[in-house]
Backbone:
């Protein structure tokens, strides 16, 4: 049986064919060629955008790099970034290659290294689950060239690929029935947003009866990674208070993420923070309990609930940036390569991410409401998928065509009209069409195939 004949709705095991060795030999040249071409294309894109600078680059990234370069190892004694010590070490390493390019280019090189690592981990996830080399190579290319990945690192020089890399390593270890708590601890030690994987982690610990004492490794790893800056003379209070300072940086419920808080502009700040934390904690606990008690097994299920955790947390929490959906956008690519039924999740996540990035990069703030609406439907259908454990899949050509046309039309309209708020009839129509086609695509793509179920029975 060929790959195309496999029922896509089930959790796939090793690819079934008459001669696996022969199939691998015939497909590996195409897979390798695809990786080489896309890998080169990604390098070209990153080279062409190496000097693209945002306000954050001028205010933070370039000064941080310059301080690390000018002070050398002595820079560790000062809190010259508002990130954890791990990022300071990476800046010091990058400064050793100062002769290679401009400061911003070298900062972006840090992101590119971990983006490449993310692509490799995702390809490894897909390969171990499906044993289909072409799918693994497509997964690598999709992550390496994903629009949100290019925006985040190549254009903005942000560091989200760093903590996402360790998050992915944690997930892939759990997919292999191994303990992934240590890489989770490293992800949290890089950035507090690593806690988005927390509900998944707690659920897997309860499910596999991993002792809760393992949670002590999270602060333990943070302190171990902080040893060099403590030796250099930085105060313990400064090191421990990094996340507290970050949490107090903004006093707005909505910053730039396409989540529910874009629709809650009139809610007082303190009330919104309290409600958001309670709502997120309740959702996270419910997801953990679901993971612990679910009878579903296999690496696909593990990846699916990891996606849910990485989606629900930034969607429900206030004070979020658009960049915090980054790990969900990447894990959804892995999930779609393992099971094509989830392809709409990956595509819609990328479209919503691009609209969110445009809101900051180009000042096109009207891109955020439709992105938030589509993310709302994405979260809703993700809950339904977990609850119902749907298995069927078919390729709804009209739904895909409608979504592609409406999303492209909305993006073109936003780019042409430029920055600011524009509640024109054309905008309202484009937004309504895009959200409607998002719903239809998700619904049609996840419709159970009763005839296939009957044949299997």
Residues:
């Amino acid at each position: 049986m060929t790959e195309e004949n496999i029922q896509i709705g089930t959790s796939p095991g090793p690819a079934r064919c008459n001669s696996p060795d022969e199939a691998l030999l015939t497909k590996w040249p195409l897979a390798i060629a695809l990786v080489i071409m896309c890998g080169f294309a990604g390098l070209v894109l990153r080279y062409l955008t190496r000097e693209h600078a945002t306000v954050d680059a001028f205010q933070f990234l370039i000064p941080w790099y310059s301080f690390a370069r000018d002070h050398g190892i002595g820079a560790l004694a000062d809190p010259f970034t508002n990130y954890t010590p791990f990022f300071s070490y990476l800046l010091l390493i990058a400064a050793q290659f100062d002769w290679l390019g401009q400061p911003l280019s070298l900062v972006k090189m840090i992101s590119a290294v971990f983006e490449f690592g993310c692509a490799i981990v995702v390809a490894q996830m897909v390969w171990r689950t499906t044993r289909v080399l072409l799918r693994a190579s497509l997964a690598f290319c999709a992550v390496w060239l994903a629009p949100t990945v290019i925006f985040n690192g190549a254009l903005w020089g942000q560091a989200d690929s760093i903590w996402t890399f360790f998050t992915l390593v944690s997930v892939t270890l759990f997919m292999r029935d191994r303990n992934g708590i240590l890489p989770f601890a490293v992800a949290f030690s890089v950035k507090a947003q690593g806690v988005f994987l927390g509900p998944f982690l707690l659920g897997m610990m309860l499910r596999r009866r991993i002792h809760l004492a393992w949670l002590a490794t999270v602060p333990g790893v943070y302190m171990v990674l902080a040893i060099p800056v403590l030796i250099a003379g930085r105060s313990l209070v400064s090191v421990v208070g990094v996340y507290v300072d970050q949490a107090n940086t903004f006093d707005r419920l909505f910053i730039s993420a396409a989540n529910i808080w874009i629709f809650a502009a009139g809610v007082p700040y303190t009330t919104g923070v309290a409600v958001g934390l309670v709502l997120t904690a309740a959702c996270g606990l419910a997801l953990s309990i679901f993971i612990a008690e679910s009878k579903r097994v296999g690496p696909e299920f593990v990846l699916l609930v990891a996606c849910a955790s990485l989606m629900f947390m930034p969607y429900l929490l206030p004070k979020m940036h658009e960049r915090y959906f980054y790990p969900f956008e990447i894990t959804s690519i892995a999930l779609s390569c393992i099971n094509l039924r989830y392809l709409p999740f990956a595509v819609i996540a990328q479209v919503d991410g691009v609209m969110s990035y445009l809101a900051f990069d180009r000042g096109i703030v009207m891109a955020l409401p439709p992105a938030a609406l589509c993310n709302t439907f994405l979260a809703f259908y993700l809950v339904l998928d977990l609850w119902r454990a749907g298995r069927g899949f078919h390729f709804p050509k009209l739904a895909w065509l409608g979504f592609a046309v409406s999303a492209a039309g909305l993006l073109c309209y936003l780019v042409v009209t430029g920055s600011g708020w524009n509640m024109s009839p054309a905008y309202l129509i484009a937004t309504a069409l895009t959200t409607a086609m998002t719903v239809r695509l998700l619904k049609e793509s996840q419709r159970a195939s009763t005839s296939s179920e009957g044949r299997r029975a």
